[in-house]
Amino acid sequence: MSDWSKALSRFQGGGAADGETASGNRGLQIEEPLIFEQGADGRTGVDLPQPPAGDRLGGLARKGGIGLPGLSEPQVVRHYTRLSQKNFAIDSGLYPLGSCTMKHNPRLNERMARLPGFGDLHPLQPRSTIQGALELMDRLAHWLKELTGMPAVALSPAAGAHGELCGIMTIRAALEARGDMRQRILVPESAHGTNPATAAACGYAVEAIPANDRGRVDLAALKAKLDGGVAAIMLTNPNTCGLFEDEILEIAEAVHRAGAFFYCDGANFNAIVGRVRPADLGIDCMHINLHKTFSTPHGGGGPGSGPVVLADALAPHAPLPWVVHGPDGFRLVEQVDAASGTEGTIGRLKGFHGQMGMFVRALAYMMSHGGDGLRQVAEDAVLNANYLMAGLKDVLTPSFQGPCMHEALFDDRFLKDTGVTTLDFAKAMIDEGYHPMTMYFPLVVHGALLMEPTETESKESLDQFIGVIRSLAERTRQQGAAEWFRQAPRFTPRRRLDETAAARKPQLRWRPPATAEAAE
Amino acid sequence: MSAIKFTEEHEWIRVEGDVGTVGITDFAQSQLGDVVFVELPAVGRQVTKGGDAAVVESVKAASEVYSPVTGEIVAVNEAIVDEPAKVNSEPMDGAWFFKVKLANPAELDAMMDEAGYAAFVDGQH
Amino acid sequence: MRYLPLTEADRRDMLAAIGVPSVDALFRDVPQQARQTTVIDLPPHQGELEVERALSSMAAKNVAAGSVPFFLGGGAYRHHVPATVDHMIQRGEFLTSYTPYQPEVTQGTLQYLFEFQTQVALLTGMDVANASLYDGATATAEAVTMANRVTGRRRAVLSGGLHPQYREVVETLARFVGFGVDAQPLDPEGTEDLAALVDGETSCVVVQYPNFFGRVRDLRGLAQACHAKGALLVVVVTEVVSLGALTPPGEMGADIVAAEGQSIGNGLNFGGPYVGLFATRDRFVRQMPGRLVGQTTDAEGRRGWVLTLSTREQHIRREKATSNICTNSGLCTLAFTIHLSLLGEAGLTRLAAINHGKAVQLAERLAKVPGVTVLNDSFFNEFTVRLAKPAAPVVDRLAERPIIAGVPVSRFASGHDDLLILAATETVTDADIEALATALEETLR
């Protein structure tokens, strides 16, 4: 085979296409092989000097090769550029993933995180060389405490779920400190999956609390479950149905009367920031997803950051390290010692001091908005969601009556007898240029569609989105709709992918063709 | 002729002598969708009525398979580990999960027969 | 406000369309007494220039690592990251995308994660790797809980050569999850005998390679001892560049490798965000925590990628999940995989050789300084020295010069006041080494 025909067959190495083009490419959608299929020996994307001599590796020098491909810099740039073009992102369009708060990510935040004084700072540098970093952490803590009304904050958790772990651990430590061993944690049926997973990870039995017909916690059912064996309730507010728990003060009162703690999943803090302080709701502990409310980028699934605000009763149990401000500046308390009052700590949750890069971004965002702007954030987020609800409630089926908070929840009753599923509907949205909403969550309604537009969408953008969804909803009623929707998406780099085959015979890494065949 | 009984958790058990063969029902497999993974108990393990015995997973769901009876696991069906799709194609026979030696055959008495289970499934809609 | 597109006219029109008089009406479910009626006492909004000025002045109070002779390691390493890496990860299609739950519109993220998983498996010498965890310390803790699941046992042995903060993270989890930890005392001399501690109750032995003090040990005997007793060997790597020069843990019998991937592609960032690498054997894959990307085909038969085996995860298993982890370190994995693509086989092995050569050079020079004893017989790019004076004040004195000399072991535990751990990467120059040696000589005099 000639080199050029080999090149063409490599293009189709993925088992390409239906013969529309010779290459399998479709205009700007360019097929891109794996880096492992592009490498050549002797090629590199870096120029490094000759190494100085020396071998003190204890006789353990690597004998065999690693198997990494060699690529030049232009190949690498092109590879990742092409991959990027296969992604949907906030930068490209409306991304109404409920519960995920896909808001605009300001680029100022990126620039600030890359200042050498923050980005090129080692976590173990001497104290005199990191005063500005500790000041930034202290300042961020101040903003979070003011916005929540809570007296203390633990900054180190790496993400929301990690914050949950931190919160439930501090609660258990506080209970143990008073000699009160409790075994159960109550979690509403509508909760994020991380809540029961966290409670179970901390050794608690998980008990579900049913929702009432208004999509809120059933207070009577909750009270019936509350007794001396309950350590905590984990509640999301606004909840995952996009509703404010209007009996939250009664819930808090009942929880506290039972001697239990009130953990709040703060994933939806964006709806109330600047307008409601969690402390005023009787909450003892809440994690804040900096990557949601405070706009640090989601980055394809991380990194996140999940600081946890704590009531006075829990603060002594906060994880290490603590940032302390004394007469001679800031310092980190990293060890358990009586002088610093850290004997009650749950210990360390993460290497070093937390997601500093996210702290800088979040603080830049907070300072940009200010106290006044953050309040406007919540108002516009709620306004946008309600505008979406108003524009769609006659064609989709809202699960609950009344105003929503930052996200609008629909179920699949509008698809009844059409043969179209929530999933099919979502895939058709992709062809229209939108990322689908959150689907099949929360579990408390059938075939859920949860839409969170966030405050950074313009009215024009929402109007266009509403128009598209309305026309899709209309289309579900037409002849042959089921098949038409089942074929979606049609215009994406890949059509629907076979998840069953992926799970039955997992292929989790690339292997060279010869070994791949041998492994069959 | 062996007796077949059903649980409200959608397992079936067919008893011959003092050994019961256990699987999940056709209704259960249809609810799960394409099965991609099965985890079976170790032979020799003691199981209790209503306790976890196996795991069955589809792409989007994972479900415990509970033992309908108390007893000891005497055999497992490795064929469905190698080929989980069998659970979808032949749930009521070829895709049995495990065989259990009954400790207390009286446990079967309260379970549904075929007609009773059919009515139970209908009642769930 | 520059991030908020709604105008006052928009807001009026939208409220009218909704049919409410004011935005307050939308917050009617909030109990009256919990409503914040005034603006919270925080500074008002600011323009980009003002925010930049304020944060820059805060940053200026720090001493950036690149501005001084720099010899700090201890789990985070200062490497040169090519300009391409930072440019590519800031493409909005990567930066502002979410977890790839809709595979048709996130093939970009899924493909790089698949490539990342392959790179990590190759580097560690293991069969399979996940799409990353938070950082090396949490990956280590997850490795221990996974070993507990696999073995059905609940006691882990931790080497005294494990990074003390990693040990602390495992201990925190152990206390709350409820399993036993047999943590060995810090072992700067490298004399511990871990094999003797393994018994029929041990779920795993956790050992760092190169260890916290920089020492490199053959782990084959330990692996055999573990396996003979039905325990797993967990190998922790905090300096992943070392795997360009050293025999990979997979070749020595590791069952799980938990590593910190910061060294490749990611800056120091004062400790985070970093990227936890996690690799294991094929047979344990369903017990592995974290996201996994797998290869499949689409409706037209073309190769593509999806998140797979997600029934292990919290959003499906809820309280029965293998871990409560939801996110990975997406963007940090991207930085890692781009940097490693640029390096390739030749680049990584050379980078590793340079690191080792620099460290040898540093060790040889410091050995000539009166009052300094190099403890290590073996090392990669980091080693421990004993000083004639307590290390912490020496480090503080050198910081005034300014030279950032390393980390005193006393920062992590009492009883080793005279020990200092130093690292040398490719960023260290001959002049830096000379400056450090001279300054140490003066300080120790």
Q: Which percent range fits the helix content of chain C?
A: 25-40%
Query: Multimeric state of these chains?
Result: heterotrimer
* Assigned CATH class of chain B: Mainly Beta
SSE string of chain B, helices as H and strands as E: EEEHEEEEEHHEH
| Low-pLDDT runs of chain C | none
- Using the CA coordinates, give the radius of gyration of chain B: 13 Å
Instruction: Give the name of the CATH superfamily of the largest domain in chain C.
Output: Type I PLP-dependent aspartate aminotransferase-like (Major domain)
- Widest sheet: strand ordering of chain B: 1-2-3-9-8-5
Mean pLDDT of chain B: 90
Number of helices of chain C: 12
| Mean residue pLDDT of chain C | 95
| Count of individual beta strands of chain B | 9
What does this 3D model show about the protein?
The complex is a heterotrimer of chains A (520), B (125) and C (445). With 520 residues, chain A is of the alpha/beta class. Chain A contains 15 helices and 13 strands. Chain A has a domain at 108-365: Type I PLP-dependent aspartate aminotransferase-like (Major domain) (Aspartate Aminotransferase, domain 2), CATH 3.40.640.10. In chain A, α5 packs parallel to α10 (356-392). Chain B is an alpha+beta fold and 125 residues long. Chain B is globular, with a radius of gyration of 13 Å. In chain B, 21% of the residues lie in helices and 37% in strands. Chain B is built from 4 helices and 9 strands. Chain B has helices at 26-32, 78-82, 86-89, 114-123; strands spanning 3-6, 11-16, 19-24, 35-39, 46-47, 52-58, 62-66, 71-76, 98-102. In chain C, the strands form 3 sheets. Chain C has a 7-stranded mixed β-sheet, with helices on both faces. In chain C, strands 10-11-13-12 form a 4-stranded antiparallel β-sheet, covered by helices on one side. In chain C, α3 runs antiparallel to α10 (330-367), α5 runs parallel beside α10 and α6 (136-151) packs across α7. The longest helix of chain C is centred in the C-terminal third of the chain and has 38 residues, at 330-367. Chain C is globular and about 80 Å long. The mean pLDDT of chain C is 95. Chains A and C meet through α2, α3, α4, α5 and α6 of A and α1, α2, α3, α4 and α5 of C.
